[in-house]
Design goal:
It is a single chain. With about 90 residues, the protein is mainly alpha-helical. The protein is about 50% helix and about 0% strand. The longest helix has 19 residues, at about 30-50.
Length: about 90
């Protein structure tokens, strides 16, 4: 597995901060939705599009109810809305 396949919240927040400092958000207030979720989706789509994949399996660590993982779950929800015929959720305990 390539290191780029491991995505942490720290990496996402750092990427968000660096983009803001470079002016990529055009002076807008940076928000979790849509800015951070867009970065998560962008990273996932880069992996999916740069590899010859039949299936992309994503594990969201932590507990579903924890606030720390909620931004990732929101990004997954948005992916499901955009590509509903190609997306499935499997919840395990």
């Amino acid at each position: 597995m390539h290191p780029s396949h491991n995505i942490t919240s720290g990496q996402i927040y750092l990427s968000t901060i660096l983009r803001e400092r470079k002016g990529k958000f055009l002076g807008k207030t940076v928000q979790l939705i849509p800015h951070v979720t867009d970065i998560i989706i962008e990273r996932l789509m880069e992996i999916a599009n740069n590899e010859d994949l039949d299936v992309l399996l994503i594990e969201c660590g932590g507990t579903v109810g924890d606030l720390e993982s909620s931004i990732f779950l929101e990004a997954f929800r948005q992916i499901k809305l955009d590509s509903h015929n190609q997306t499935a959720f499997i919840h395990v305990t």
